[in-house]
Design brief:
The structure holds two protein chains of two kinds. Chain A contains seven helices and no strands. Chain A is mostly helical. In chain A, helix 1 runs antiparallel to helix 3 and helix 3 packs across helix 5. Chain B has two domains: about 130 residues, Rod shape-determining protein MreC, domain 1 (Thrombin, subunit H, Beta Barrel); about 80 residues, Rod shape-determining protein MreC, domain 2 (Thrombin, subunit H), CATH 2.40.10. Chain B is about 35% helix and about 25% strand. Chain B has five helices and twelve strands. In chain B, strands 1-2-5-4-3-12 form a six-stranded antiparallel barrel. In chain B, strands 6-7-8-11-10-9 form a six-stranded antiparallel beta barrel. Classes of the chains: A mainly alpha, B alpha+beta. Chains A and B meet through helix 1 and helix 4 of A and helix 2 of B.
Chain lengths: ~160, ~270
Amino acid sequence: MKISSHQGGWLILLSFIVAFMLTVIPLPEMLQYIRPEWSALVLLYWCMALPGRIGVGIGWAVGLLLDVLTGTLLGQHALGMTVIAYLIINLHQRIRIFPLWQQAIIIWMILNLYQILLLWFDGITGQPPKGLQFWLPPISGMILWPIIFILLRHLRRQFKVQ
Amino acid sequence: MTLDHRQKHMQHVRAALSLLIAPIELLVDIPNDLGRWVSESLSTRQTLLEENTRLHSQNLLMQARSLKNADLEAENQRLRELLGSSLKVADRVLIAELIKVDLDPFKHLIRINKTQEHGVYLDQPLLDADGVMGQVIETVPAHTTVRLITDPGHSIPIQVSRNGLRTIATGSGKINQINLPYLPNNTDIKQGDLLVTSGLGGVYPPGYPVAYVTEVKYIEGDEFAQIKAEPTAHLNRSREVLLVWSGEHIKKLQQTTKTTKEADNENQ
């Protein structure tokens, strides 16, 4: 692989770091429940935009770091990320040409799947059940998707990330 | 994942990855630190003087109280000798500071800045000035994670200080409430009772305040009473917290490196 065909890796790294920070930044209690899964959203965008570069492997690594960051079982987020990265890479050619609102709905469904995987592991390891608020992050993720998409696309074009 | 859950093999991996994560936590904590620094440096001479006098008087009060305390301790020891029970050794404490990050909103976990190198161990109890806060569930080189007593997955052995009744309190998932689900309807417990740690289970040293009973409800036909209590510790407000070493752990602590002593000196 030539170096010229891979550039702007720092932007991808930066976007994940910002996503991690947003994941743990203190929020008022009401907002905590609707905090979207920032890292998952960023991962989904990069998988869609650069499927040859960001994929299941990166997703797994990001998930693992997220596990350490949030103190969950090592591999829980990693598995979720792997699955959604795989899905979006399979679908990326179709989703790319969708209008934004339609994309957002697909993202919502994928994020729900991600939440189900997390919930499943909590169930297996004997964590107490969670309330209905558990299903709010995918919705806020869906609402924020157009903004994230446009912002990251703008940055990607600005810095010619390939 | 099974390895991490069932055994502790993955601890090293976790420790290594936590070093990668540490800068992110620090970055997130910066605005919080900055805010404190600004408010400290902007406070006027007047407020500082006021605070100083207030602390002075408080200190005087505490000293007077501790004079009495020494006397009571001696008396307690005499009585214990009479009873033939073992002498209660004073516990050692170390002040730790909260790292302000939000973790899972469905669990009550907090991060503190003291780690293994200060002698922190797994299951170590954590207090604040007013009561028990929780126990250490993970300690890696970059941070220590603590589960609060209100976490729905946490239980703490307690006793009612009024009559010595022992039971278990579990977290409710609400930051200001713990439940006592295992007491039958005819139990002698009422609103306002102080609950203290019983020392059973070996995690929490006995005698530290945990919560006040706020509600006792008897439901006819139900085997157990519904009892709610409010933690005495300021679980969502404390910034400085205390790590406690008791019993055999004190000896282990003394064996650990000098860093602990230095940290101790800093905090005194």
